[in-house]
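Hi everyone, sorry if this is the wrong subforum. Our group has a chain we'd like a structural model of before ordering constructs, and none of us has done structure prediction before. Sequence below.
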Amino acid sequence: MSDVSWTPVTVRLSQLTPWERNPKRISKSHAKRLLDLWERLGQFQTIAIGPDGEVYDGHQRLSVLKAKHGGGYVVQVLQAS
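Answer:
Right subforum, don't worry. Here is the predicted structure as tokens:
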């Protein structure tokens, strides 16, 4: 088994590809709460992505931020090797 390394990188939301089969959904009230926390505290959690920008973790953060700020919004992510 090979070792996976994680590198912090800065990307635009438009560079990220959500996993099509992600089973999680977010309600409007939870989306509002998540966005309120993000705007009040800043980026307190990263989005984990694969080498090609596929989202492994952070789909709800991605959808909430993209709906509010658009694809040009920049976030810090952890990218797998």
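For your construct planning: The mean pLDDT is 88. The longest strand covers residues 6-12.
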